[in-house]
Structure prediction request, 148 residues.
Amino acid sequence: MKLPEIAVISDTHGSLPDRLVKRLAKADEIWHLGDVTHPSTIEPLQYLPADLAIVCGNCDPFGQWPQRLEFERGGHRFRLQHLPPSEGVSGVSAILYGHLHQPLRERSGDTLLLNPGAITSPRGGSKSSFGWLRFPEAGQWTWTIETL
Prediction:
């Protein structure tokens, strides 16, 4: 069984560049970490064959999407949320979050805290970016950042 190749985006804030949509076309799944802002923004993603999962950001209509989602892929558990984790972390391999508008990779105990950066208005000298979560072989996963 082929494990999915997952594109992780965040902070589109009403803008989804065509060049991004083309690059996401190869994804098996797309995880959006919030701040879509306008639901119509993600319409082009609905035409891709990838499964789409979205969590609510602080700039999204409240209740449009869940605040958190958890998925198990390749024997690892991943939590999706918009805001950086503020409580203790346990039971997941990684927490993927947005909000900060810059890519980050940090560790909290046995859990990785991963931010793909922002599609719109990157900060901290970063460029517009997104992440790829890949599973090269059973039990292993990788995280890479791509700039637009």
Summary: The first strand starts at residue 6 and ends at 9. The chain has a mean pLDDT of 94.
